[in-house]
Amino acid sequence: MKNVLVLCTGNSCRSQMAHGYLEHFQEKLANIYSAGIETHGLNPMAVSIMKEDKVDISHHTSNHVDEYAGIDWDYIITVCDHAKEHCPFIPAKNARRLHQNFVDPSKVDGSEQEIHEAFVSTRDEIKEFCHDFVREELMG
């Protein structure tokens, strides 16, 4: 079984959503992990916005990338520019490294509606990316 790491800055929002969708779109093709170069805790709005799309990530934890040392990665996916630029070296000579920057909806200021819309927009972009990744990389 393949091992997939989704990496973000704080492992609280975007990487958690990607982790949820990667698990949702595949079964028994890969072990999915998410981590951050820091840990910020699970973002409650990320949990809520995923629940709206019937994907439960409430059981996820915010993990530091060092917690997964020694895993033989097949894929390392960074979902924000900051993590890509500041990630410590992850020894994984055979890993395919992919990068897709998604806007951080937790940084949006505005009305409750504007913040909700930002989370929906990012969630939907992540959903499409994860669907395509599973189809092209794990099933392909």
Low-pLDDT sequence parts: none
Helix content: 25-40%
Q: State the secondary-structure class.
A: alpha/beta
Strand order within the widest beta sheet: 2-1-3-4
Strand content: 15-25%
> What spatial form do the alpha-carbon principal axes imply?
globular
Mean pLDDT: 94
Q: Roughly how many Å is the radius of gyration?
A: 14 Å
The first-to-last residue Cα distance is 14 Å
Total DSSP E strands: 4
Q: What can you see in these coordinates?
A:
This protein has 140 residues and is an alpha/beta fold. The protein contains 4 helices and 4 strands. The chain has helices at residues 14-25, 44-52, 81-86, 112-138, and strands at 2-8, 30-36, 75-78, 96-99. The chain has a 4-stranded parallel sheet. The protein is globular. The model has no long low-confidence stretch (mean pLDDT 94).
Short description:
The protein is of the alpha/beta class and 140 residues long.
Question: What would the keywords be for this entry?
Answer:
140 residues, 4 helices, globular
